[in-house]
Amino acid sequence: MVRVDLLLSGLTACIALIGYLPLQAYLDPFARFFFPAALLLAACLQVKGRALPPRVLTPASILLFFYLAAQFSLSRLVPVTSDLLVVFLGVRLLGERIGRNYLQAFALSLFCLAASSLYEISAVFLVYLFSLLLMVAVALVLLTFHAQDAAAVLPAREAKKVLTVAALMPVASLPMLLFLFFFLPRTQYPIWNFMNAPAGKKTGLSDTVQPGTAQAVSEVRGAVLRAVSPKVPEQQLYWRAVVLNAFKNDAWVREPAPHDAPAVIRGDAVLQEIYPERTATQYLPALNVPRAITDLRNDGSIDGVFVSRRPLDKKVRYLAESVLADTLQVRRIDRGFYLRLPERVSERMRAEGVALARSGRNSVEKMAALEGFFRGQRLTYANTGLPVGGDPLDSFLFDKKRGNCEYFASCYAILLRLAGVPSRLVGGYRGGTYNDVGGYYLVTEDMAHVWVEAYLDGVGWRTVDPSAWALGRVRSRQARGLAMYADTLGFYWDKAVVTYDLDKQLALVRNAGSKARDLRLPTWFGKAMLLALPVLAGTVALFFWRKQRPPTVEARLLRRMLRLLAKRYPGEIKGDEGIFELSERLNDRHLTRFVALYGSAVYRDRPLTRAEAAALEDIVREASQDRP
Amino acid sequence: MQKLAKVDEMNAVLEELSSRHLKGKVRALRLSLMALLTGGHILLEDIPGLGKTTMALAFASALGLSFGRVQCTSDLLPSDITGLSVFDRTEGRFNFIRGPIFNNIVLIDEINRAMPKTQSALLEAMEERRVTVEGVTYQLPEPFLVLATQNPVEQVGTYPLPESQMDRFLIRTGIGYPPEEIEKGILRQGSIRDEIMHIPALVRTDDLVSAIAAVKEVYVGEKVTDYVYAIIRATRNHPLIQAGLSTRGGIGMVDAAKAAAYLHGRDFVAPEDVRDVVHAVCPHRLIFRPEHEGVDKEHVLNAILKEIPLPLT
């Protein structure tokens, strides 16, 4: 046995939770704690079978309204409204358990969920929306029972039937939703962003590198991009975003590339389809080294850096073509530009540079010597306890001996320049979590990385990652478990819904229109196919219809009559009775006439005459029109 | 569909008897009438005192038929039933004195108390509808119905009817206790034996004869025959049953179904008529395997019927 009121209360609590949860992160503390408290209190009241009377609730709602509305201002339009919605939803749960209150709670939950979309649009919204719709549909059906009899109790089997049918309604409307998907416009960013643009997302990647400004780097685990790409060997998983080639106030910055010869990148191309998250910078990362980026208007420069022409403040996608090479072949560079030094270089570093310059005749030998020096220093890779102060690089190399990629790369590049080898820094990401379900790499903020390119005379820019010589390096991972599926869901949501914009929809309609205008009848074969297909479809449909249809006139008539009766006397027709028994039991005048005529033909072994069939037909029609 | 001969009169008799004189015995009455209309015989199996004799008496008077009664004992001789020749001294020859069997309705009370010899004489008369005594054959009257009763509980000093002889009865049924309200009414009124003696005849013998003729004419279609055969075959193949329905059993089923259809005012048999009579016609003809003696025959039969769908089209 299932108590309808309990079931309804439980569902309402779930519905209210779905309204509350997505908003929860954006609420004021008062509203955030008021709702769970109200829910808890409502549960207690339900157990005791009591409810707060309107004479308590109405003044309380008015007070709460004034309290919250006092914080109202034009810039706080949405937050105050959300608070109000959530608080009223909580108040509704405390009220008497009558139909009107339930309906109000459902409506408020829907509004809350809608309000949450002003802040954030993600795939989770879809999940919330579907569960809310499903539960509201079921709850509405239960409410009809509740309205009839507040203490209604359903046997378990009946309850199961009711729930199944109620749940089927929203599920059946899903295809409609898919259909509407192609026509409804959709927004690419939360609407609330119009009114108050979010602060630029803090990214691990920046276009200046100055080690020693902070003692610790906090790890942000936000996604940076997702790239649909074939799997790439682990050691080649570098995402190139920016090249830093000059100094400004002792910090590495990017200056317009000098007059180098154009780079030649040879090798097999790896294609990636990249979906970056919204960022404040406009660099377009791609696997090292990108050769071209298409599908998004951008400016590429000869050092393999691509910059989007418009801000990346909404979800976009682009195609990148990269070659997994460790060398950019450049015939000739502006050596002087790449040998400039920062204003301040410590004595110890200078001495080391001089020693290096003497250690080898060419760049390769000098680099080998420098690698030996780095390894010999036994440096540790760390994100905390970083050297700061007067000369952080010196302190990193000779005293503290711990640092992150910025220290490694900066020191390495400066020492190379001291030794007379042109060098520059490359900023981007290292690694990536491969999602086997979606077939894409997920790159997160904490994978931000800086490495070095050194110029070998006559060869080109050679990629070197000095951080790799540290003791203990972080390896990239394989995505596992639930998180992988959740991320896949979010990825497809972005791919199919968010980046699918109105322009594309319009283009689709335009295309379809012009195609229809230009439609020319195909050749005879095509024409024949065009004719044959509907005919075939019709034949198949006819075949199935006939197969499912009773073979004789008698059987068809009887089936129609029995279906009619099953509708009129629900639950009465079990199918194990003779027609005369049935007519005697139901005492239906139409059925009595029907069986007399029908039985006298069927049980006398003769087919129905045309007149009899017509008469039976009439009886069935009359019966269907007769409303008892 | 033309009107069946005398069907209204027959239903009126049933209605009158069951509503006025014999409350709560509709089923037994109906089955008795069906037996009479098909020319079969009926075995009432129930404990004494439930009104078997009363019912038989009332039935006979309401139909305007003659009534004879035999109370069986272990020393009852065949001639006590059929009658015997007695020497008439004034005329100087033997005169045949007819026994109680020369009546339209004969009540054989406690048939299992008679010894087998008497039982077999009786059953022979039921089957042949005539009696041969000392070389002379006497035709029994038409219509002719034997209503035999037996007490299923009593075992001492009885000669239970063998299966082969049970088969001679078209219908076997019980009477059962009347429903509470009706029984209380009966308790208030007391015995109605006197009243029953004076029930006026509701139909004439001619009517009965034409009704019997009409039942014979009731049409049995192919679908119904198939249905009956399906039942027979199912009883023959059933794992619990040693011997299923005989062909005579099948004929009995069809005959009883005809009478049922007739009483419903139809001149053709519908499958539900067959199912209606199965429980009266079949159980006493089924012989279960020795290890399953105790199984309720009605249950097995119900299970069989459930398996076979009624032919509706």
TrEMBL record, chain A:
Q: Does the keyword field hold Amino-acid biosynthesis?
A: no
Please report the stretch or stretches of sequence annotated as the Transglutaminase-like domain: 397-468
User: Key word Transmembrane helix present in the record?
Assistant: yes
InterPro entries documented for this protein: Bact_TGase-like, Papain-like_cys_pep_sf, TgpA_N, Transglutaminase-like
Q: Which domain of life is it from?
A: Bacteria
Ordered alphabetically, the record's keywords are: Membrane, Transmembrane, Transmembrane helix
For this protein, the parts annotated as crossing the membrane are 7-23, 76-95, 102-119, 125-145, 165-184, 524-545
Q: What is this protein called?
A: DUF3488 domain-containing protein
Give the organism the record lists: Geomonas anaerohicana
